[in-house]
From TrEMBL:
It is found in: Cell membrane. InterPro entries: ABC1_TM_dom (IPR011527), ABC1_TM_sf (IPR036640), ABC_transporter-like_ATP-bd (IPR003439), ABC_transporter-like_CS (IPR017871), P-loop_NTPase (IPR027417), Type_1_exporter (IPR039421). Keywords: Membrane, Transmembrane, Transmembrane helix. PANTHER family: ATP-BINDING CASSETTE SUB-FAMILY B MEMBER 10, MITOCHONDRIAL (PTHR43394:SF1), ATP-DEPENDENT PERMEASE MDL1, MITOCHONDRIAL (PTHR43394). Residues 323-559 form the ABC transporter domain. The keyword Kinase does not apply. One of its GO terms (cellular component) is plasma membrane. Residues 40-314 form the ABC transmembrane type-1 domain. This is ABC transporter. PROSITE patterns: ABC_TM1F, ABC_TRANSPORTER_1, ABC_TRANSPORTER_2. GO terms for molecular function: ABC-type oligopeptide transporter activity; ATP binding; ATP hydrolysis activity. The chain crosses the membrane at residues 31-54, 66-89, 171-190.
Length: 564
């Protein structure tokens, strides 16, 4: 029995989805080749059986030759045995190829997840990884499995075309012209299928992420009576996924319909042409019987060719998601040796952002991913041309302690609340901790539980807003030279957000603070705002000035509402 998974899946080619699929096929070329050859034998035996039946009719039945009939019957029996033997081996080999491709992808994705470590939740949602590991590996296995069947189907079409040409060049010409016409007619149906499959896969990943969040905080939601609210939101997102699934299924059903309709039309044409040729005496009765058999037999290989187009399209979409995951790189190591003196200017060359020391600088991006990318570069969680005090960030010593990036995906570790809020690289006394809690408007949370209360893993007993305020308090308690906050108030109400915005500047006086947000409350309290479009700073100034001078900024931060 074949052992799966393989000990070493190898190094994948992640340059493109197509290259990944080709690499997967090459990595298990023996199984792919064996499956293709066995499928060729399986379909060839079926096609030759039809030719043998035609010969038996002509030479045995029509000529009343018992020995010829027995001989051709023996040939049909032998070919039937070949169909049975190759069919069993073909199925086993194709399933082996499917499993090998799926398991190989699972191994590669798992290895990449381990390699990324803490970088993974920063760069992609948990639901995305779940979707890759559950759904996309299946589509990649399907793509490898269909290759062998497509080779066999193509060979069968060519063999039947040759047999029909030998009986009647006109019939052979009908098939020779009809097959490319069928493929060309089905081609326009592939692009909508690919686009809708991609959209459906993205929404499934988002829904999986929401489900993971709900499960993690289910006890808290029940405690505060928010279970029904979040269930309604999950239901709405489920409906979005359903609609996207229906759209993808509609495109797939059109392709499947074409797989049946177009070959059916060709079969009808071949049958009509064969009957006319037999009526005119151009072909024998045995050839007519064989041609009827060929016409019916062609339905399966032609359908397989059409199925291959759809399956490979879905496999290409799935491989694209795997490739995106493989392209993620771990955070660059903190190996610098240069120590800049005092507060320093932070410059990101890619976006043109200049962060002056000692100020609260806000980054408002039309696309939140651009702000996240800048934050990653500023904290050296992603490599880039960033300078701190004129020194390349990669050469700065202790950059992760000097520049702290706080995300909403950060977790609270289990233990006491005091330990959960204390950064590992710097001791914090109670006075500093209480000051951080006040700035983050999290005093009520600490007062309700006590600093010595035990915190469950990931702080599951807290609501989303409480967790966000506690994460902000922990970041403030670290008191780094540069603090980068990514959407630090997205889960709190407007009154709490206003208090945080008012207190943040005073709490960080003399230190550099960068806030990635589109909240008008936070932007209005910032000393300086940089507006980012397509990854580059296109406008800078105070919030109220930008509202008047930059329409795109006003649209991004007010969402069509009246500006303050």
């Amino acid at each position: 029995m074949k052992r799966l998974p393989v000990p070493d899946p190898g190094v994948p080619d992640g340059r493109s989805p197509t290259r990944y699929l080709i690499w997967t096929a090459r990595a298990q070329w023996r199984a792919v080749l064996a499956g293709a050859l066995l499928d060729v034998g399986w379909t060839a035996c079926q096609a030759l059986m039809l030719a043998a039946i035609g010969k038996a009719v002509d030479e045995g039945v029509a000529e009343r030759d018992a020995s010829a009939l027995a001989a051709w019957s023996a040939v049909v029996l032998a070919l039937g045995g070949g169909v049975a033997a190759t069919g069993v081996l073909r199925h086993r080999t194709l399933v082996l190829g499917w499993l090998s491709a799926a398991y190989r992808t699972v191994q590669i994705v798992t290895r990449q997840a381990v390699r990324l470590g803490g970088t993974l939740p920063r760069r992609t949602a948990a639901g995305e990884v779940v979707s890759v590991g559950v759904t996309d590996v299946e589509h990649i296995g399907d793509a490898l499995e269909i290759l062998g069947r497509a080779v066999g189907a193509t060979t069968a079409i060519g063999l039947v075309t040759g047999l029909m040409w030998a009986a009647s060049p006109r019939l052979g010409l009908v098939v020779l012209i009809g097959v490319p016409v069928i493929l060309a007619a089905a081609g326009p149906l592939l692009r909508p299928l690919r686009e809708r499959e991609q959209r459906h896969r993205e929404l499934v990943g988002e829904l999986n992420s929401r489900a993971a969040d709900l499960v993690a905080g289910l006890r808290v939601l029940r405690g505060i009576g928010g279970e029904a609210l979040f269930a309604d939101r999950y239901r709405e997102e489920s409906q979005r996924v359903r609609r996207a699934g229906v759209a993808a299924a509609t495109a797939a059903s059109r392709l499947r319909g074409a797989e049946v309709l177009l070959p059916g039309l060709l079969v009808a044409l071949v049958t009509w042409a064969g009957a006319r040729a037999a009526a005119s005496g151009a072909i024998s009765v045995g050839d007519l019987v064989a041609c009827y058999g060929y016409a019916v037999f062609l339905i399966t290989p032609l359908k397989t060719v059409g199925e291959a187009a759809g399956t490979l399209t879905r496999g290409h979409v799935a491989a694209g998601r795997v490739v995106r995951l493989l392209r993620l790189e771990p955070e660059p190591p903190d190996t610098g040796t240069v120590v800049p003196d005092g507060p320093a200017e932070l410059v990101d060359a890619a976006s043109g952002l200049v962060v002056r020391p000692g100020r609260v600088t806000a980054i408002a991006a039309s696309d939140p991913r651009d702000a996240q990318a800048i934050a990653d570069r500023l904290g050296r969680h992603a490599d880039g041309e960033v300078a701190y005090g004129g020194v390349p960030l990669r050469d700065v010593a202790g950059v992760r302690e000097r520049i702290v990036v706080a995300l909403n995906e950060d977790r609270l570790f289990s233990g006491t609340l005091r330990d959960a809020l204390t950064p590992g690289f710097r001791p914090v006394d109670d006075a500093a901790l209480h000051a951080a809690l006040r700035t983050a408007c999290a005093e009520d949370v600490a007062a309700a539980t006590g600093l010595d209360a035990r915190v469950a893993e990931a702080g599951r007993e807290f609501s989303g807003g409480q967790l966000q305020r506690l994460r902000l308090a922990r970041a403030l308690a670290a008191d780094p030279e540069v603090l980068v906050l990514v959407e630090p108030t997205s889960a709190v109400d407007a009154h709490t957000e206003a208090r945080i915005a008012d207190r943040l500047g005073a709490a960080r006086a003399g230190r550099t603070t960068v806030v990635c947000t589109t909240s008008p409350l936070m932007l209005d309290r910032a000393d300086h705002v940089a507006f980012v479009v397509n990854g580059a700073v296109v406008a800078e100034g105070r919030h109220r000035d930008l509202l008047l001078s930059e329409p795109r900024y006003a649209a991004a931060v007010t969402r069509g509402e009246d500006s303050p």
